[in-house]
Amino acid sequence: MMYNDVFRVMFGRRFQTADDPLFNELKALNVERSRLSQSFDFNYADFIPVLRPFLRRYLNRCTQLNNRRMKIFEDHFVQERMKALEQSGKITCAIDHILMAERKGEINHDNVLYIVENINIAGIEGTLWSIEWGIVELVNHPEVQSKLRDEMAAVLGPNVALTEPDLERLPYLQSVVKETLRRRMAITMLVPHMNLRDAKLAGFDIPAKSKILVNAWFLANDPKRWVRADEFRPERFLEEDKAVEANGNDLRFVPFGIGRRSCPGIILALPIMGITLGRLVQNFKLLPPPGLEKIDTTEKLGQFSSQILKHATIVCKPLEA
């Protein structure tokens, strides 16, 4: 689903089945990229620079993987859209705007490929992990499911399918999405930044060109700054924290970063999460696997992400019409 959502917006195309060879190759390459980039087994030199000389094999693997990914984007997507744009002259998807910027000399072709690569990473993985966490929390909190279902029935009417324009009329659904991003932040450490000049922060000296990591998860789960921070409680965004949004208007909650370097994927992630979770609750009662009362929420930690350690197959019980 996530691949089709992102690739339809980006390239105007979709994968017809899960057996599509190109889909499976992309998925395998993404899994390997995530493993290499986030595993402490490989990336320890980011934190212990003196060990960098021992990372030659690791860096070679990263380079080879990156070259394979770029070739797929170039051969199967970018070149295809370049030809279509030359023939029709019509802009029909996001990559067309990027290719037009290249034509005007605003960016070069390497920029095009890296934009495509970044959207492929951020638009698919982070949103997918967040949806998984949202489903887990809904299963483990049936009272939240019921409140969410009641809100949609009251606002939309019976048997009316949720669509994107409806999201702004559903404050509790928005709160469920925000609470998922707060309590189960998929990208725990924001994308690394670098300061160009020497700086001071809270009395500490930060040398120029330091790698700066922001622990966004801790900001969003600090018990000194949130009421009952360790609870999954969407109501907080309708009560004491009703002014807090996911766009970084409050520094306690910055799941997409803040300012000029914030993640542009917010415009896709929030509606996709809202529609996916809302449609599931509209049509099904989400239950834990048979024999279990709740789903295990133990986390599998990477350098920058938090994922579910043990995936479970939930029960989706259709609601009576």
UniProtKB/TrEMBL annotation:
Heme binds at residue 263. This is Trans-cinnamate 4-monooxygenase. One of its GO terms (molecular function) is heme binding. It comes from Lolium multiflorum (Italian ryegrass). Its cofactor is heme. One of its GO terms (biological process) is lignin metabolic process. InterPro entries: Cyt_P450 (IPR001128), Cyt_P450_CS (IPR017972), Cyt_P450_E_grp-I (IPR002401), Cyt_P450_sf (IPR036396). PANTHER family: TRANS-CINNAMATE 4-MONOOXYGENASE. Gene3D superfamilies: Cytochrome P450. SUPFAM superfamilies: Cytochrome P450. The keyword Metal-binding applies. Keywords: Heme, Iron, Membrane, Metal-binding, Monooxygenase, Oxidoreductase, Transmembrane, Transmembrane helix. It is found in: Membrane. One of its GO terms (cellular component) is membrane. Belongs to the cytochrome P450 family. Its main location: membrane. It holds the Pfam family p450.
